[in-house]
Amino acid sequence: MAWAAIVASRDHLAGLSVVLAIAAVMAGLGVVEVRQGINVSGSFLVYILAGAFLGPASAFVAAVVSEVAATRVSRTRREIFVFNLVAAGFTALLAGTLIRDVAPADHRAGFYLVLAGLALVMLELTWLIVAGLDVLFEGYRNTLSPRHVVENLPGAVINVALAVAGAAIYVEVGVAGIAFALAAVLAFSYMAYLLAQSRARTEQYVSLSWGVLAGLLRALDTRDQRAARHAAAVARFARDMAEQVGMSEHDQELAHTAGLLHDIGHFALSDRVAERGRTLNEEDWVAIQRHPELGAEMLRDLGMYGPVAEIVLAHHERIDGRGYPNGLVGEEIPEIAKIIAVAEVYDTLTAADTYRTRMSSFEALNELRRVAGTQLDEGYVEVLAGLLSGEGVEYRHADAANFDSELDMERRIKEARAS
């Protein structure tokens, strides 16, 4: 504050003051959180322009106004607000003072080169101050890692380019020009803010949806001790088969997700059906044959994207049309549903927790080949056979398949955040 008061006498008033004052408020209100604890806004552009044309005191005021406005959006803790205020205020004063004392007054090429260099230095200085305060008071030591420097560099270059362009517009066009340019930049910032909000909601929705589904499968696993392991095994086999036949990464992920959820409909079945060792009557078998429909309905209700529900619905269809629930034939069955069917039958035959006598991998493949062309797709049976030929016992008998590892909730949330 003292520094600002000392240099204030050298500031001059202009129409630019009003434009930058409004822009400072709007930049603060348009702050966007790009990742946890890291916010970006247009405030840097505003205070650099204030420092370049109005002086260091105005730059300081612009930085303070932006940070105060930003707290209305980001709701930062008091100490974090102080960190940001110190970093922004100090660098704004420093930038304004250096521009006033070092930059040529003729607004030619030398002025813009000095402005660009100082802007880049101020950005990095701000980052170092905030990161240093985080280390000192919060213990976030990874904020000073070289990786973060590299990640922040493209954004720094863009900010410097905007600062130079903004200065040139003001020099060549005047207040009206810079007002229009700042309006465009701040509008873009606001769009980024809306996008960040949308991504945050998507992340929350994905987390909630998968949390519910994972909870249902774990609840199912308490009734049928093979449920979670079987889902993990089928997901792994299905993904690897999809990769083996050259499907896209999207379809590989689709096969993996459908494999995890293919038996989610079992949750709606009665305890009687799930109980081991009980002879099932005709009513029980009718209920079992409804689980693909029940699973697909659950997935649609939770908003899972359509193809997963359709694959789950069709994973018990047969090539000869004698499957359920819709009696689809051959090409009518989704390709990934055919893959899930092969993976499910194979794991059921070879797993230690199966409800029938366990088979070796060799015996199971012989059985799959026996029903290929009628129950299962012959091509995918051979794809699985080729896949298994190069693997050891641990892979061929997926007794150790882990549901949480295959689910990988953190990865799915990150992908939702990036999408």
CATH-assigned fold name of the largest domain: Arp2/3 complex 21 kDa subunit ARPC3
Largest sheet descriptor: 2 strands, antiparallel
- Gap between N and C termini, in Å? 43 Å
Please indicate the count of domains: 2
Number of helices: 20
- Specify the CATH architecture of the largest domain: Orthogonal Bundle
At the first level of CATH, the class of the largest domain is: Mainly Alpha
Q: What gyration radius follows from the Cα positions, in whole Å?
A: 31 Å
- List how many beta strands DSSP finds: 2
Q: Which structural class should the secondary elements be placed in?
A: mainly alpha
Keywords:
419 residues, mainly alpha, Arp2/3 complex 21 kDa subunit ARPC3, Hypothetical protein af1432, 20 helices, 73% helix, disordered N terminus
Structure description:
The chain is an all-alpha fold. It folds into 2 domains: 2-201, Arp2/3 complex 21 kDa subunit ARPC3 (Orthogonal Bundle), CATH 1.10.1760; 224-418, Hypothetical protein af1432 (Orthogonal Bundle), CATH 1.10.3210. Helices cover 73% and strands 2% of the residues. Strands 1-2 form a two-stranded antiparallel sheet.
Element layout with pairings:
Layout: H1 2-8, H2 15-29, E1 32-35, E2 38-40, H3 43-53, H4 56-74, H5 78-102, H6 109-138, H7 146-173, H8 175-223, H9 227-244, H10 249-261, H11 271-274, H12 282-288, H13 291-301, H14 306-314, H15 335-350, H16 361-371, H17 378-389, H18 393-396, H19 403-407, H20 409-418
Antiparallel strand pairs: 1-2
Helix pairs in contact: 1-4, 2-3, 2-4, 2-8, 3-4, 3-5, 3-7, 4-5, 5-6, 6-7, 7-8, 8-20, 9-10, 9-15, 9-17, 10-14, 10-15, 13-14, 14-15, 15-16, 16-17
